[in-house]
Design brief:
mainly alpha; three-stranded parallel beta sheet; 6 helices; about 45% helix; globular
Length: about 190
Amino acid sequence: MVTFKIRKDEYKNNVGELAIYFLDLRSFKSVKDYAKNLLTNEAAIYILINNAGMAAASPYEKTEDGIETTLQVNHLGHFLLTLLLLPKMQSSSPSCRRVNVSSLAYIFADIDFDDINLERSYALFKSYARSKLANILFTKELADRLRKANIHGINVYCVHSGIIPTEVLWDVNNAVLPNFCFTLERLFLK
């Protein structure tokens, strides 16, 4: 944990500003446009948190790029965004962070590269879990490649935020075990 001590008058005069950019992870073009806007308009990028996502597409669907939607939204869009922003992060600070929000659901997944779009074996939970496994594998590989390339100052993390009652969770439960998890969730959720 890092603590910054700022006097009240310093904070009051340096509150910063909010910049909003549109991003649709279902479109690689949108990801590229988003990255271009950030790279053009922002002086530095200190942290990238890849948290946007979805439970799974129901019914099965592909993006305009021909990729199964859940894989593209939860993983490939973040993968592309990360790669596009890494050079700016590297030049921004000696202590940047890149965080993927994954899920413990990864333990139920594997990645079948012969059926990468799950055209032969689509299931809602399978799609979600696989995308979360991909997040973890990418994070580990990125950390390894940065280390081997002797690139310092970009720390990469992958976290499981815990089970939090969001719309994603309700979608997964309705697809896997409708109504069963509701009572248990009320007891154990954050």
